[in-house]
Amino acid sequence: MAETIELEIVTPERMVVKGRAEEIQIPGRGGYLGILPGHAPLITELAVGEIEYKNAGTVTRLSVAWGFAEVLPEKVTILAETAELAEDIDVERANAARERALENIHKADNPGAYEEASQALSRAESRLAVAKQK
Ligand code: ATP
Question: What fold characterizes domain 90-132?
Answer without folding.
Answer: 1.20.5
